Amino acid sequence: MSALNTEYDLVITNGICVTASDVAAWDLAIKDEKIVLQAPSGSLAQANAKRVIDAEGGYVMPGGIDCHAHLEEPAIFIKGSTGRSADSWETGTRSAVAGGNTTVVAFAPQNKSQPSLLTAVASTHALATGNCYTDYGFHLLMSDPNPEALDELKALKEDEGVSSVKIYMTYTALQLRDDQILSVLLGARQNEILTMIHAENGDVLNWLTDQLEAQGKFAPKYHSNSRPPILEAEATNRAIALSSLISNTPILLVHISDPSAASRIRAAQSAGQPVLAETCPQYLFLTRDDLDKPGFEGAKCVCSPPPRNKADQDAIWTGLENGTFTVLSSDHCPFRYDDAVAGKKSCITEEYPVGRFRYVPNGLPGIETRLPLAFSAARLALNKFVEVSSTNAAKLYGMYPKKGAMIPGVSDADLVIWYPEDALGELSVTNDMLHHDVDYTPYEGRKVRNWPRYTILRGNVVWDRDGGGIVAAKGVGRFLKRGPSTLGRIWETVREEGPLDLESL
Ligand SMILES: *[C@@H]1O[C@H](CO)[C@@H](O)[C@H](O)[C@H]1NC(C)=O
Ligand SMILES: *[C@@H]1O[C@H](CO)[C@@H](O)[C@H](O)[C@H]1NC(C)=O
Ligand SMILES: *[C@@H]1O[C@H](CO)[C@@H](O)[C@H](O)[C@H]1NC(C)=O
């Protein structure tokens, strides 16, 4: 393609491109939804293009990829709670794009009373189709690994393009026994599906919850006491052990908050086990003190695992810097605060005026604030920031290099353009400026130094902060059929090892 006579759809000039490996002053040309050319800075300013965006020296990065979000899910998590996630596929992806994301992978929940996995995929498609502002995919949230469901794993991956499942070691309605976890890991291994695991010991936390309630302790802050770090470390260790028993089947420990869980993960990685891990902004920016506010206010920050303390935040940053954590996701799991039916206040009754922590819907909104907060903290090197918020997610979940990269001729033109350094001064996060369908943000008043100025999905400007905000129609986002993970050589190693050999145990 000659740079001289091609008409491009879009040219971005005068930006500093940042990928997981480079920081470089390049212009980018985009045609037919792909990046087609990287050229020296300024050289494309006069190119023949339908539109030219002058980045004015701001950073240009692959669009954020958020692979942990709960959108439009039924009240499946806590028995006896009516809490439902507040954001739909439409409002969740709208908020994501305004925060610089171009891809979201959220959950297709399997209903225990409707045990087919493929049915869960079909009902989630019905909710998402035509409604999204980002490209999107599904992880299958497995609550019932019955033999029929396990038989469907092959079709799930090969026909539906769903190459990851999520399982729980907690939440009575979702918690799997160890033998069920082994069955999922074996099925996942045979089909090259990544297993995401929520590791907290559900039996122990239920017992602690009963003990706390017996002592009359109901306020939101006791959520932390019911889920001390040892529960996370124990379950993490158990998940690692179960994966090793199934010939080192790859697992991803989601939303790690506790440094001792992180160090167990690190030890498994050092021993060569394919154990990957995720952390989230709430473990970098919130602490257990945020749950200890007057009245019911602390419920805004109730999520699981709970935010820990200041020193723990530091260890989690270290884990992001040193590669223990592969990805930084939001675990956007929003509930409205002032909503007595489906929101945080659904656990308040006359008898329990500060609610009961065991029934507070667990989760925080964060899809829009993940990148600005993490970027503004300026703790991660620029390349590392792109790696954990975009590139690694694309590799881990089978979307690379179509997503998470800027490779001419190969990568989708999914980009986030930031303001030039210091152009915004200091900005306070307020809920008013966000695009989710939630009545609060746990980061209200938090200062950030930058914000996504443009978000571009396959060459379409979807977010233009100064030029109208959300400027594309819903439905611009497309479903992504995903392949196996290409991070490291995790599946190659499994193929070399062959099927599970029980005689080797
Ligand atoms: C799940 O099952 C419950 C109970 O049978 C039903 O009310 C609900 O609509 C089902 N949800 C989905 C998504 O199929
Ligand atoms: C890397 O980070 C993890 C998690 O915080 C920590 O356990 C480990 O000691 C760190 N390793 C090095 C070499 O710094
Ligand atoms: C992407 O999503 C996360 C969380 O879902 C959000 O906090 C972040 O700001 C968004 N932007 C980017 C560029 O990742």
Automatic annotation (TrEMBL):
GO: which molecular function terms?
A: hydrolase activity, acting on carbon-nitrogen (but not peptide) bonds
Post-translational modification here is noted as: Carbamylation allows a single lysine to coordinate two divalent metal cations.
What do the Gene Ontology cellular component annotations say?
cytoplasm
Q: Name any one Pfam family assigned in the record.
A: Amidohydro_1
Give a yes or no for keyword Transport in this entry. Answer: no
* Record InterPro entries: Amidohydro-rel, Hydantoinase/dihydroPyrase, Metal-dep_hydrolase_composite, Metal_Hydrolase, Metallo-dep_Hydrolases_sf
Keywords, alphabetical? Phosphoprotein
Q: Which Gene3D superfamilies does the entry mention?
A: Metal-dependent hydrolases, Urease, subunit C, domain 1
Residue numbers carrying N6-carboxylysine? 166
Q: Which residue ranges does the record assign to the Amidohydrolase-related domain?
A: 59-462
Q: Which NCBIfam families match?
A: D-hydantoinase
Of which family is this protein a member?
Answer: Belongs to the metallo-dependent hydrolases superfamily. Hydantoinase/dihydropyrimidinase family.
Q: Which named protein is this? A: Probable DAL1 - Allantoinase
